[in-house]
Model the fold of this input.
Amino acid sequence: MSSSSSPPHQSILPTIPKSDLDACQLEQEHVHKVYNNIAHNFSDTRHKPWPRVVEFLRSFPSHSLILDVGCGNGKYMNIRNDLMMIGCDRSEGLLSICRDRQYQVFLSDCMNIPVPTNMFDGVICIAVLHHISTENRRLMALKEIVRLLKPGGQALITVWAKEQEVENKKSTYITNKNTKTCPVHTKNEQTNEIIIHTPRTEFQQPDCLVPWTKPTEKLLRYYHVFVKDELEHILSHISQVKIINSYNDDGNWCIIFMKMA
Ligand SMILES: C[S@@+](CC[C@H](N)C(=O)[O-])C[C@H]1O[C@@H](n2cnc3c(N)ncnc32)[C@H](O)[C@@H]1O
Done:
């Protein structure tokens, strides 16, 4: 991994994936390894459920079966004790935190979830798809969610937005300058390198590496930040999907859809 002081031409940053294998390697190195490494640290900063996700979960009748895809530390798993919530994630570190909390979770990649078709009344997938590095793989993940829903079931998907100012309102991510920011890298135009994003600033590119600083090391998480209507565009390739609502929630694009019979 390059250090922040390396000149761009000497850095060994990953490049935009050209194949599925490249994409797997990029996600392994800059998503899965990082989440495992930061699991406890990350979990300590993630306890406040987003109100609109809670509102979505509150819309289901008692005893509905809900899957949380990419459940992280399980912060949505105990919103209601009359729902049957199951979570899955690629990070063993985060799953073990869920298990300590007695949540029902299993290890799975969101592109291939080992569960029968038409199983769930609802699915949430919160802040996960922006870690998938090609459009085809993002489509695979959404197809998998559609497959798992019962006809009439609904899913809520949220992703980080490239636009951090919508209708003249800046997101909390941009306005909250409490976190120390450190400009770390600029794009090397000669290569296809993925740039390092400067935290708490507007995104310059849709594909970027976002630093996570631990006392002893700086880790880089891969993100594909979505532009307006990008989720709708991908979903338009899947039959059986009816979009119920789409909105921006403080720097995130969100979509609620129903699986049609
Ligand atoms: C920003 S966290 C969000 C966690 C949780 N949904 C929340 O809202 O707190 C992203 C989560 O996605 C998981 N993740 C990333 N890529 C994944 C994949 N391909 N399959 C399953 N989970 C994945 C990570 O391990 C991590 O738990």
User: Anything to note?
Assistant: The helical segments are 20-44, 51-58, 92-100, 135-148, 172-175, 230-235. The two ends are 48 Å apart (CA to CA).
